[in-house]
Design a protein that fits this description.
By secondary structure, this protein is of the alpha+beta class. It contains four helices and seven strands; from the N terminus they run αββββββααβα. It has a domain of about 100 residues.
């Protein structure tokens, strides 16, 4: 019984987790915040803690929302590096993030979003390829 109580308390959502259906995130380039769907309230999301959320996890990519230096940041990990579906996986990940947040491409470019290849993380370097449609977006390496 004590173990159940400890697990309940440990896994109890924090009071700092937003409860509204939308939330505002700061824009990199303007004073106006960007209103997004509250990914904490999405039943497909896995809340790690009040600052970190796995928005999507599948065989092709993971999408994480986390707090870095008190800024909401998103990270897309692409899998299957070297395969002929890498660009398709990138497009699917970008589309999934925009749909979950209910934002446009223009709004996505104003958020802190990094896109990296999972194979790079395991190696010595990690290059941020950005979103394909944003000014900082880079072409993925050829398979």
């Amino acid at each position: 019984m004590i173990l159940v109580a400890i697990l309940f308390i440990k896994n109890k959502p924090s009071e700092s987790i937003p409860k509204e259906s939308t939330m505002s995130l700061p824009s990199k380039e303007s004073k106006d915040d960007i209103i997004v769907n509250n990914y904490y309230q999405d039943p497909r999301s896995e809340i790690i803690d009040e600052k970190d959320v796995v928005i999507e996890k599948n065989e092709a990519f993971d999408i994480l929302a986390y707090d870095y230096n008190n800024k909401r940041t998103f990270l897309i990990y692409l899998y299957n590096r070297g395969s002929d579906v890498l660009e398709a996986n990138r497009q699917a990940a970008e589309k999934t993030l925009m749909e979950r947040l209910n934002i446009t491409k223009e709004q996505a470019c104003l958020l802190e979003i990094s896109l990296v290849l999972a194979d790079d993380i395991e190696g010595a370097t990690t290059e941020d390829y950005g979103l394909s449609f944003c000014p900082n977006g880079k072409a993925l390496p050829l398979p």
